[in-house]
Amino acid sequence: MKNPYEILGLNSDADPDQLRARYEALRARYGEQRFQDGEMGNEGARLLSELESAWKIIESDINKREANKKFGGSYGELESLIREGAYDKAQDALDSITNRDAKWHYYQSIIFYKRDWLSESRAQLVLAIQMDPNNTKYQESLRKLDMVMGNPNANAQQVNNGNPYDQQYQQQQYGQQYQQQQYEQQRATNDAANTCANCALCYCLTESCCTMTRCCS
């Protein structure tokens, strides 16, 4: 494939608005040409297809450039974009950060998780832990992610009910686990008490039967 910027007839450092304007103009031109008869129509369709493929690459470059300008090579409003569900913009913002440290891989893991790419999310989280092994937040997130991936009833659609990156969810899970432990302990105690009561009742019935037998003898 040719250089996508050559297809637009502009340089890669051209202003984004200029690139968009040229794309729209060429798109309109080729869109009309493809409806012409014969070779002219076929050429228009070919040029339009080539233009669309080139624009996907150029648009991605523009988004990265704008993200780098907006976020200044830092995490900035990355979390806000993730909360808003703007994962493409969040990815562009993350890609604009050149320092691929543990934090970078942690945020990449979150974006992958939000896209339901659980295996890729885990791989990025493992990298974050390898680079920052003492970070308890990363370790806890990995533990929760493994719980989601290992539970046959859990799936990627349960993000809001089981987000390994959400602190409130983690606290809720601890509370549920504690309540479950308390319930199991109480049930065991009740079972033991019921067993003792049944034994005592059997003993009393046996004694009563023996007494009646002696009296009737």
Give the gist of this structure.
With 217 residues, the chain is mainly α. The chain has 3 domains: 4-71, Helix Hairpins; 99-160, no CATH class; 166-217. Helices cover 76% and strands 0% of the residues.
Q: How far is the first residue's CA from the last residue's CA?
A: 111 Å
CATH class of the largest domain: Mainly Alpha
Structural class: mainly alpha
The chain-level mean pLDDT equals 76
Number of helices: 9
Which percent band covers the strand fraction?
A: under 5%
Helix content: over 70%
Taken together, the total number of domains comes to 3
User: Which spans of ≥5 residues are poorly predicted at pLDDT below 50?
Assistant: 152-161, 168-179, 200-206, 208-217
Shape: elongated
CATH architecture of the largest domain: Orthogonal Bundle
Q: How big is the Rg?
A: 33 Å
Sheet bearing the most strands, described? Answer: none
Annotated CATH topology of the largest domain: Helix Hairpins
- Order of H and E elements: HHHHHHHHH
The number of strands is: 0
Architecture overview:
The chain is an all-alpha fold. The chain has three domains: 68 residues, Helix Hairpins, CATH 1.10.287; 62 residues, no CATH class; 52 residues. The chain is built from nine helices and no strands. Helix 6 packs antiparallel against helix 7. The protein starts with a helix and ends with a helix. The C terminus is likely disordered.
